Amino acid sequence: MVVILLGPPGVGKGTQGARLVDELGWVRIATGDLLRAARREGTDLGRKAQEYMDAGDLVPDDLIVALVKEHLAGLGADTGVLFDGFPRTVPQAVSLDAMLPELSRKVDGVLLFEAPADVLFKRISGRRSSPEGRVYNVYFDPPRQEGICDVTGSSLVHRADDEPETVERRLAVYEEQTAPLISYYDAAPTRVMRIEGDRPMAEVEEAVRQELARELDVTVGSR
Ligand code: AMP
């Protein structure tokens, strides 16, 4: 099974994706995470991607497609795959459609998360994280003391690409380059499952569970 999480930055795809792979035992391929890891490790890819990422622009398709190919190749044929943040352009989707049959796979479904732009803006630009991975939001879930993690006392960090100007750019890039994928998949035999992302987390989780069961016969364990 291959499922794509599609939707603008800040809509909650990452949170849902992490939970789903946990419960389903699938593998999550999140290109944004892979690129950030490449940057931390100082690889050639990381150096090439840096400038685009910090500006809120997309990394060129050929680099992304090569990265995904490398990660897909090592997987067993019956491992479920959840793509998070990929594909992000129509050419990336076309490349994915070309590489999957070689692995006896196809895109089975797309979970499309949607939310109003003002909510997305606050969700991303308000995000602050601790080095230990705890995430706060200055609008929706602030730490008790500004800039300090409640649990560890570490200083909170604002990702460069979460700065307000970059967030505006990332949202515009989504509309221009990624949103056309909605009609791409609507026109394909792929199941497109629409999820309203601007709701309490438990409701979003329930909607995802119902759609996956109804459209793809995939059961997410009740916790
Ligand atoms: P994300 O964590 O998914 O929001 O990704 C962070 C940044 O990594 C994006 O703003 C892009 O610069 C880059 N990126 C991640 N995935 C892709 C992709 N599929 N295509 C192009 N750029 C990407």
Describe this structure in words.
The chain is an alpha/beta fold and 223 residues long. It has a single domain, classed as P-loop containing nucleotide triphosphate hydrolases (Rossmann fold, 3-Layer(aba) Sandwich), CATH 3.40.50. It contains 9 helices and 7 strands; from the N terminus they run βαβαααβαβαββααβα. A 5-stranded parallel beta sheet has the order 2-3-1-4-7, sandwiched between helices. A two-stranded antiparallel sheet has the order 5-6. The longest helix is centred in the C-terminal third of the chain and has 16 residues. The chain is globular. The two termini are 22 Å apart. The mean pLDDT is 94. Adenosine monophosphate binds next to helix 2 and helix 3.
- SSE string, helices as H and strands as E: EHEHHHEHEHEEHHEH
CA-based gyration radius: 17 Å
CATH architecture: 3-Layer(aba) Sandwich
Looking at this structure, what is the CATH superfamily?
A: P-loop containing nucleotide triphosphate hydrolases
| CATH class type | Alpha Beta
Taking the alpha carbons of the first and last residues, their distance comes to: 22 Å
Mean pLDDT: 94
Which cofactors or ions or other ligands sit in this model? adenosine monophosphate
Number of helices in the DSSP assignment = 9
Indicate the percent of residues in helices. Answer: 40-55%
CATH-derived topology:
Rossmann fold
Beta-strand percent range:
5-15%
Query: Structural class, from secondary structure content?
Result: alpha/beta
Largest sheet: spatial strand order: 2-3-1-4-7
- Please tell me the total number of domains: 1
Largest sheet: 5 strands, parallel
From the spread of the alpha carbons, the general shape counts as globular
Oligomerization status of the protein chains: single chain
Report the strand count. Answer: 7
Given as residue ranges, the uncertain stretches (5+ residues, pLDDT < 50) are: none
